[in-house]
Each structure stands twice: as C-alpha cells, then as structure tokens.
Amino acid sequence: MKNKQWVLNNRPSGVPNIEEDFKINIVDTKSLDYGDVLLETQFLSLDPYMRGRMNAGPSYSDPVQIGAVMEGEVVAKVIETKSKIFNVGDMVTAKSGWQQYSTLSEKSLSKINQDKNLPITYSLGVLGMPGRTAYLGFLEVCKPKPGETIVVSAASGAVGSIVGQIAKIMGCKVIGIAGSNEKVKYCTEKLNFDLCLNYKTQDIDKELGLLGENFVNMYFDNVGGNISDAVLNHISTFSRIAVCGQIANYNAKVPPQGPRVARTLLTKQSTMQGFIVFNFEHIYVEAMEAISNWIKSGEIIYKEDVYKGFDSIPSTFMKLFEGENFGKLIVDVR
I need a surface site. Which of 22, 106, 130, 184 has the fewest CB within 10 A? Predict the structure, then answer.
C-alpha cells in the first residue's frame, strides 16, 4: 500500500516557506511485526510546538530530521493488526505525524474511550494534550486562589480558552488577550471571561494600566513577545507566571531582545516557570476526569477549527502564525 507523507525538506530561517521547507514523499507502508498495527490517519492536530521541532537548536525534545515525517498527533483507525490489544476498526490516538498511514507498536497507541456523544476530535484537543496542558499548567504552576486575577494570552485558542474557563470555575477574574474582535466577543460572551483585549487594535500595557496597579496575580503565557512584556508591567507581589508557549518568537531569525525581567521578578517576589505537560503524566487521569465532567455539566465549551485535505496541511499549519485559526486547529485527512 502506498503512503503519502509530508516530510521536512529544509530547516526554515524565519517564517517557514511551505514551497521549500516541506515536501511530499510517497513510500510503501511497512509490514507488521508481532504487536504492530497499521493505522489510517483520520484527523491531524496542528500545534505551535511543531515549529520548534523544525529547528536544530536545543529544546526539550529532539528536532525532526531533514527528510523525516513532520511530527504530530492524530486520530487514526486500525486497518490491520498483529496485536492482541487492538482490533481492526478501533479508533486510537498516535504520534504518527503528517502521513496517511503508519505502522506502529501497540505500546505507542492510546485507544479512544471518550463519551461517544462528543466529537472524536476532542481527543486531540480539550480531552487531549491541549486540555491537559491547560489544566495542569494552571493548577500546578499558577496555583490559583479564588478572587485572584489571571491574564491569559491567545485566549480563544486551544489552550487559552480552557485555562480561562477553568479559572472562572475556580472563582478567579479572567482577562483574555486575543487577535480579533470576533475572538474578543467569543471570550466574553461565550466563555464568560470578565474582559478580553484585542492586541491588534489596543495598547495592552495602557489598557491594563487603566484597570489598576500591580493587580495581575497570575499570567498564563501562550505567546511571549511584546504582549508578555506588557503584562509583566502589571504583575502583583507573589504573582505566578506559567510559560506555556512563545509563538511570537518561533519564527525569529535571531532571538529577539526584550525587557530584562529579573528585576521585576525580584522586586515583586514572583515566580516565572516554564513547563512541559509531559512532566505531569502522573496526574493526567485527574485532569481528564475533571475536564470531562465540566464538559458534561456545560461549564466548559470548546471550539474547533477544522480544515479538509492532506495536501493542504502545510498551508493550514501556517494559519497558527498568521492569527487566522480560531480554536483548535485540525485537518480532516479522510
């Protein structure tokens, strides 16, 4: 069986060039050994971390090698099996990347057992890595207390939207930052954030200054860059900052220089912590049970942005960096 793959063709310098940095390969699917399954990809999750995997520099995970399949998590169907655990027709999540088919060990798969009334793509979003990231980053790093104020950047996105809703559930005041009036309206009217600012039309530093002095107890940072520089001007004493993503800097040819924050953290006696969700694997079950219950009760809602077509994966991926996606970005490759 022929397998179509998107592979990394070049390491980008700055913004990826989809015509030069990605390439389609067509190869034969691999034969199965004992314990293997053959998967047919149904849906692919596109996430900002993938941009970091295209670089060769040091990171918390190895880069994608030139000529290798781009990384990514998928929802896939088992179409052939030599496993005693998985049967033909089972739906699973797997980190098989940007390809139509993959042969993987049963040990690397997770069977999808979520409520069948929910979209199966939730296993790539609110009931998957983004949901776990939001829950665990917020609770374990921000350590919220009722009545505190949190600012969330990329507030309408896959992670930020969940962080804000959990914060509201826990009695916090939530200020979001997003990139369009539509997204701002969604955060305030649908997600019940107390306030949301449009960084494209408003001066974030000025707008936060109008709300008070040193009042931001928590900041969930999904973007970095100028937005984070502005928020840090308004943190309170003993504030907690969870650094989840730095998408504003991912395409920089050289590391941008911003304000030096050590003095701010010192004088405010505050904590700024980067975190990787995989370090909290021991409490994944707790996170998924809590979020599942909030979905059932209607306390958490979730928006997906689904595009169709395997050949359009690179162009769809670029929407993450252009602010065009609205919700969890997924490609339907069926």
Answer: 106
What is this structure's pTM? 0.93
DSSP E strands in 170-287: the ranges are 173-178, 195-198, 216-221, 235-243, 271-274
Q: Give the residue carrying structure tokens 């009931």.
A: 127
Joined together, the tokens standing for residue 285 give: 């079950």
Q: How is residue 9 written in tokens?
A: 């063709």
Beta-strand pair 304-308/91-94: unpaired
293 φ/ψ angles, rounded to the nearest 5 degrees: -65, -40
Per-residue model confidence as pLDDT tens digits over 150-209:
999 999 999 999 999 999 999 999 999 999 999 999 999 999 999 999 999 999 999 999
What is the pLDDT averaged over residues 258-287? Answer: 95
Q: How many CB atoms lie within 10 A of CB 318?
A: 16
- Structural domains in the chain, CATH included, are 2-125+302-332 (3.90.180.10), 129-278 (3.40.50.720)
What is the tens place of the pLDDT at every residue in 116-137?
899 999 999 999 999 999 999 9
Q: Give the number of other Cβ atoms within 10 Å of residue 277's Cβ.
A: 20
- How many Cα neighbours within 13 Å face the side chain of 320? 29
**With the CA atoms of 31, 38, 88 and 83 taken in that order, what torsion angle do they form, in degrees rounded to the nearest 10?**
70
For residues 149 and 85, what is the distance between their CA atoms, to the nearest angstrom?
A: 46
The whole-angstrom separation of Cα 127 and Cα 283 is 14
pLDDT for res 156 = 97
Contact 277, 136 (CB under 8 A): yes
**Cα dihedral: 270, 129, 186, 247 (round 10):** 60
